[in-house]
């Protein structure tokens, strides 16, 4: 029996050893990642441009542009592949999701090729080996020496980074605070919400050299070489593409292009950013933010109103099985949308639906906010319809009007008059809620303010500007809505 079992096991192992190479060869043969990019003619690079000198925003020829050593590397990679480079900006902790869902083709954002990340994406050879510092307020330089000096204090780092994980694992009696943006962390540091910010040495040096109120100290984190190095990330299985890009990375390292050319070029942009840091100098960025904020708001209100009417009518449907099912579906939709955060809905539409349909960030933002608004508008409309006296409906029907005509010409106009203040409030709320789409890289007002903060290293001034701009927009909208409300009441 043992001999038979041993023979059977040997046969299974032999078959397995035969099939695996064939499967591997088939997978390699099926890998067309390089051919696909070259055929498309465009290489989409995802990055989080708040990490100087790796990637950051600078004003070039009057236009805000993503620059830095990682951008230079991206251009070199695209040139060697014979394609154009397209840069897509988003928060750092959204990059891996964007890569896996096909929103971007590669990540170059000072990303460390840690073992955990290697399970989900494919990395090239390392293009830069660095280390970590902790940025502190200069007035605290005598108080803090390294990570062990922050007992009882709070250390911050960019969410999803290796230094953020290091704070949690390698410090004792120290609180960790994660934020999506480096500029937010520096602002929190200067407003004494944080005692220190851990970041890579080149970034720390960039912030300190451009802000006399800051200083950098050694972190003394115990990190592996993977955790202190940077590599380019591609989707898992992109073997041919990774192998091709590795040749470019090897050339960059051989010719020492990072230290020789890319870092000095980034330094020039950093100096240019601090020549004129007045908010008036960045009026175009704020104007663009206002434009996109209003586009998102107006479109979302329009589509949200249409969705709201359909949902309200569906929720009030009575009669046969079909109408009952429609009512239950509408009720489930409204309750689900109202019971989940809008930020999650935005990310689901952009990344989740992105697995099937490659929607632009602006379109995804409008769809998500419209769907969200529709659920709330449905309840406003349903309440407005219920507020119309039943006698109005009975009178209309007695005159021979159909159900549809009664609803269109009698009930809905009166309902709209009753719910106008609520609809106006929804419009004003959407002006402010549109800021959520900045997480997927839509260049609305919050996104543009982050650009200005990254450009100027000024944390408070851009926030004050956008507060004033939001107030102007909401106040103006409120006055216009009140005017029409008075007209309706007069009629």
TrEMBL record:
The chain crosses the membrane at residues 292-314, 348-371, 460-481. GO terms for cellular component: ATP-binding cassette (ABC) transporter complex. It is found in: Cell membrane. GO terms for molecular function: transmembrane transporter activity. Residues 1-29 form the signal peptide. GO terms for biological process: amino acid transport. SMART domains: PBPb. The keyword Phosphoprotein does not apply. Gene3D superfamilies: MetI-like, Periplasmic binding protein-like II. NCBIfam families: HEQRo_perm_3TM (TIGR01726). This is ABC transporter permease subunit. The keyword Membrane applies. InterPro entries: AA_ABC_transptr_permease_3TM, ArtM/GltK/GlnP/TcyL/YhdX-like, MetI-like, MetI-like_sf, Solute-binding_3/MltF_N. It comes from Lactiplantibacillus garii. It is a multi-pass membrane protein.
């Amino acid at each position: 029996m043992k001999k038979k079992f041993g023979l059977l096991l040997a046969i299974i192992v032999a078959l397995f050893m035969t099939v695996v190479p064939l499967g591997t060869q088939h997978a390699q043969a099926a890998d067309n990642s390089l051919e696909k990019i070259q055929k498309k003619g465009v290489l989409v690079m995802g990055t989080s441009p708040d990490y100087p000198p790796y990637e950051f925003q600078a004003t070039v020829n009057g236009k805000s542009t993503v620059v830095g050593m990682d951008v230079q590397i991206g251009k070199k990679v695209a040139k060697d592949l014979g394609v154009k480079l397209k840069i897509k900006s988003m928060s750092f902790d959204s990059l891996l999701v964007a890569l896996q869902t096909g929103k971007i083709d590669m990540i170059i954002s000072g990303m460390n090729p840690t073992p955990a990340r290697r399970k989900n994406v494919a990395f090239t050879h390392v293009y830069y080996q660095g280390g970590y510092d902790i940025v502190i307020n200069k007035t605290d330089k005598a108080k803090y020496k390294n990570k062990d000096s922050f007992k009882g204090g709070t250390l911050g780092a960019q969410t999803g980074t290796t230094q953020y994980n290091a704070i949690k694992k390698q410090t004792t009696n120290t609180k960790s605070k994660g934020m999506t943006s480096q500029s937010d962390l520096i602002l929190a540091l200067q407003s004494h919400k944080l005692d220190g910010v851990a970041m890579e040495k080149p970034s720390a040096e960039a912030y300190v050299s451009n802000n006399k109120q800051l200083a950098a100290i050694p972190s003394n984190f115990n990190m592996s070489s993977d955790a202190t190095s940077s590599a380019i990330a591609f989707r898992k299985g992109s073997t041919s593409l990774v192998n091709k890009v590795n040749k470019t990375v090897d050339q960059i390292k051989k010719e020492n292009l990072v230290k020789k050319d890319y870092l000095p070029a980034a330094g020039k942009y950093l100096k240019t950013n601090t020549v004129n840091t007045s908010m008036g100098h960045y009026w175009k960025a704020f104007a663009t933010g206002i434009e996109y904020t209003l586009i998102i708001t107006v479109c979302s209100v329009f589509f949200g109103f249409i969705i709201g009417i359909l949902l309200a009518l569906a929720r009030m449907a009575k009669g046969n099985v079909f109408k009952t099912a429609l009512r239950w579906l509408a009720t489930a939709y409204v309750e689900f949308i109202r019971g989940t955060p809008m930020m999650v809905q935005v990310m689901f539409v952009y990344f989740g639906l992105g697995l099937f349909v490659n929607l632009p960030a602006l379109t995804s933002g409008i769809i998500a906010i419209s769907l969200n608004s529709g659920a709330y508008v449905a309840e406003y409309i349903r309440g407005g319809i219920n507020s119309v006296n039943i006698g109005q409906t009975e009178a209309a029907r007695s005159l021979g009007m159909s159900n549809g005509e009664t609803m269109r010409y009698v009930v809905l106009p009166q309902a709209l008059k009753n719910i106008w203040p609520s609809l106006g409030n929804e419009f004003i709320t959407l002006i402010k809620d549109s800021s959520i789409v900045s997480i997927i890289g839509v260049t609305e007002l919050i996104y543009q303010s982050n650009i200005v903060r990254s450009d100027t290293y000024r944390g408070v001034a851009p926030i004050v500007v956008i507060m004033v701009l939001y107030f102007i927009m909401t106040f103006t909208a409120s006055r216009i809505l009140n005017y029409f409300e008075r007209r309706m009441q007069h009629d």
